[in-house]
């Protein structure tokens, strides 16, 4: 058991996903947890025996057919997020792709990370640590979004500095591409839109994993979250605040705000109505 606990702690520390997309025995990638456990059992007879002879989930159900199986609501919440906005909404999809690319670009080099720290110190900003995007713990993306939102001006200045001073062609190319993506209206608006939304979700997600949580309270939390999200959709004041925050961010970075195109109403509609 201690061996499995050590694997769990290690994956949690490094922020790696536990589960794979396909965990059956024929799968080439069953997820980090199972892959590490199956690797260690080759060198550990105790772990090998436990994995071979230890009780499985289905065994308990066979022993007592009256066992009430309850899905993990926190995991279900993550699945809903992935299906609703993680894949189908291309703006959000591209947004998180940029967040992950930013993390890899800055944290992949000590020099680039030091540049960000230097810029933050110059503008008297308390820097939040950039976070990698988790592929399974979707609600935890709030930390990644919150860090970028807090560090936004420092990030722009740091990447511009890197772009101007680097002597490596691909670093300059990547930094220019990042600057373009980070300063688009879609990215900044998504940043302001997702921050309050993910804040609601991450709070509920944390509560759903409490040890003393019962089924009734978990259902009430889910209902409350659905109601809160529904209210956010119909709150005009919140939308105006998001838009104003986006415009303010544009102003601070000196980027020209794109003009909203007014669609022309076809004259054929009026003609057909007269006829």
What general outline do the C-alpha atoms trace?
globular
**Elements, N to C (H/E):** HHHHHHHHHHHHH
How many strand units? 0
Count of DSSP H/I helices: 13
Rg, rounded, reads 24 Å
Mean pLDDT figure: 78
**Major sheet, described briefly?**
none
Number of domain modules: 2
Strand content: under 5%
Kindly name the structural category. mainly alpha
Low-confidence stretches: none
From the N-terminal CA to the C-terminal CA, the straight-line distance is 80 Å
Helix content: 55-70%
Quick take:
The chain has helices at 2-14, 32-40, 45-53, 57-63, 73-86, 90-107, 110-122, 141-165, 169-182, 185-207, 215-233, 236-253, 267-274.
Give a structural overview.
It comes from Aphis craccivora (Cowpea aphid). InterPro entries: RNaseH-like_sf. This is Zinc finger MYM-type protein 1-like. The chain is an all-alpha fold. It has two domains: 1-53, no CATH class; 73-253, no CATH class. It has 13 helices and no strands. It has helices at 2-14, 32-40, 45-53, 57-63, 73-86, 90-107, 110-122, 141-165, 169-182, 185-207, 215-233, 236-253, 267-274. The termini are far apart. The relative contact order is 0.08.
What structural keywords apply?
275 residues; 13 helices; mainly alpha; 69% helix
Which helices and strands occur, and which strands form pairs?
Elements: H1 2-14, H2 32-40, H3 45-53, H4 57-63, H5 73-86, H6 90-107, H7 110-122, H8 141-165, H9 169-182, H10 185-207, H11 215-233, H12 236-253, H13 267-274
Helix pairs in contact: 1-2, 6-9, 6-10, 7-8, 8-9, 8-10, 10-11, 10-12
